[in-house]
Amino acid sequence: MTRRRFSAVLALSAGLLALPSLVNVPAVYAKSANKSFIVNRVQTKDPVVFITIDDGSVITDGLVKLLLSKKIPVTNFVLSEALKTHWKALHRIQRPGTSFENHSETHRLMSSLSLKEQTSEICRANGHVRGNYKKVPVFFRPPGGSHNSNTVIAAKKCGIKKIVLWNVEADQGKIVKSSGNSIQRGDIILLHYLNSLESSLKLVLAEIKRLGLRPASLRDYLDPAPVVATTTTTTLSQ
Ligand SMILES: [Zn+2]
């Protein structure tokens, strides 16, 4: 980063930090600290975690209300089928910090497919996301987390910038972290669009608030704009 550009970032950060706590500027070092193409958590010093929701077939009014009223940034990994049949409901949760990303076209396990098949799954799903969301997906989450070296090749061919896995899962009234510890800054939390999503999400939000953490936008940390000029992190309210 040039000296002039660095100064500009610092000046911008200082200006934003003077605002109330709703404003959070992702650390400028975040991009260089997260160089791996496959991630299951984010390296950051900010007190943030990342809420990700997969598949996309059950969207209740209560869920939409919860996400919008609390201004929760969510990274959605949606299937092509869900985009086709549920986009009208899904797009209601759009707000700054919420993005729609690639979860494959048909939810097949990547490690069971050839390179050609994996490329087709990812590139075709990109087209479906772009067709509805009007933005290009930058992240790919392989169904079930299944991947191999061809998945990396295929994802890069399709223009994907990161394969995003997770290290915390929440469902059915439980939060499970693979390491067995409690949720920590930088964790990527997996939920699914199921009937239980609203209650699972409430559980997660209460827990991260208790731990002094906030939900943030994955794009801000893993695919940040050159100079961060917007805010997408939120302070949890009651
Ligand atoms: Zn899935």
Structural account:
The chain has helices spanning 3-17, 30-33, 61-69, 80-90, 115-133, 149-157, 197-210, 218-222; strands spanning 38-39, 48-55, 74-78, 99-102, 139-140, 162-164, 168-171, 174-177, 188-192, 214-215. With 238 residues, the protein is an alpha/beta fold. It has a single domain (3-222), classed as Alpha-Beta Barrel (TIM Barrel), CATH 3.20.20.370. β2, α3 and β3 (74-78) form a beta-alpha-beta unit. α5 (115-133) crosses α6. The radius of gyration is 17 Å and the shape is globular. The model is unreliable at 1-24 and 228-232 (pLDDT under 50). It binds zinc ion.
Globally, the shape reads globular
How many distinct beta strands?
A: 10
- Category from helices, strands and their pairing: alpha/beta
Approximately what portion of the residues adopt beta-strand conformation?
A: 15-25%
Main sheet characteristics = 7 strands, mixed
Unreliable segments of 5+ consecutive residues: 1-24, 228-232
Quote the distance from N terminus to C terminus: 40 Å
Main CATH class: Alpha Beta
Bound molecules: zinc ion
The helical percent reads 25-40%
Assign the CATH topology. Answer: TIM Barrel
Number of helical segments? 8
Q: Residue-averaged pLDDT, rounded?
A: 84
User: From the 3D coordinates, which CATH architecture would you assign?
Assistant: Alpha-Beta Barrel
Rounded Rg: 17 Å
